[in-house]
Amino acid sequence: MSETNVNADDDSAPRVTADDVRAAAERFDDDSIVQRTPIETSRSLSRTVDGDVRLKMEHLQRTGSFKPRGAYNKLQALAGRDDVEHVVAASAGNHAQGVALAARKTGLPATIVMPKNAPQTKIDATRGYGADVVLEGIDFPAAVEHARTLADRKESVFVHAFDDPAIVAGNGTVALELLEDVPEMETVIVPIGGGGLIGGMGAALAAARPDVRLIGVQAESVATVPDSLQKGRPQSLEEGTTIADGIATGGISSLTFELIDAHVDEVVTVTDEELAHGILVLLERAKQLVEGAGAAPVAALLSGRIDVADETAVAVLSGGNLDLTMLDTLLTYELTARSQHIRLEVRIQDEPGVMQELSGIIADQGANIRTVEHVRSDDRLDVGQAFLEFVVETSGRGHADAIRETITERGYEVQRVN
Questions:
Q1: SS3 state at 346
Q2: What radius of gyration, in Å, describes the C-alpha atoms of the chain?
């Protein structure tokens, strides 16, 4: 049977209700597929925002994100049907792993289409759960288009990442756990990609605790929800890149738009620089490794765009599948921003012993030299001169300034070039 006949993901799909979310929770019969994730208080974030900040650890699910909730709910409903023998999905990574894991549990073969630029760790993990992976397109919309063509055959079903009531209801079970574990919560902050997580959570929270403020966060460069809400219908974005690949969906659906419009109080955006800072703060202060999408609520708190002073606020850390090459990039960026990695360009007379002298000056300041480059070919130099370019580890901005001032006091022309 084709996807359009078995998958309720069109504009006429019924709105997800709290009853749907509770029914999904009752289907979660295997904690190796869907776990009840812990909640921790972040004292550091609480001090920073003058509130009581709790972290909902959805990145600790088996696949590293909340996605098995929706996928397992959907596939549980499909598994007993004679007319469904195969599932197809499209994902940048997290939905892929959720579907692959749920498919293995329910005995349904799965094919996952992922963009060609998907992180290798997510590709490998999806294959590790037993799914066939097809790399197609450069972004999520292109992967979806190809996946639909694969699913357009007898006894195959396309499992959409967010435009499906069963997926949304399963994702909404995060809110049921919050209602039990943090009954004093006043604000809940959730990342938004396609809206499947915040839509389901909104349905559950609206029924049980309409007084709770629900705030969504998008990456600024790929944000579509603010424009969608302003224009009264879903808007798409054809171009845009972000380090938060997990929420770079290119748009929301009519189903999730309806839920966001009904239940979400506010939507804010954060820059990639703020996302990077959020990731590093969580790693450094909370000892939690999350990806860009998962860090979005914390990035929004740190940016000051959300005021939770004197409130109990829950930030949902939706995913933790951060590629190590991206982590290296983020560490370099953040250490440079903190002046803990600085690059100094020192003009010298190109004579023996000068490099040793400068190295000694930096060492006497208690700093470590990571690299040094001797540059003689530069049209800013006079005859007999050279530049020594040092990359130096420091303890911060004050230490960096002291090193530069000391080099200047010793008679050298020096400038910081990063």
A1: strand
A2: 25
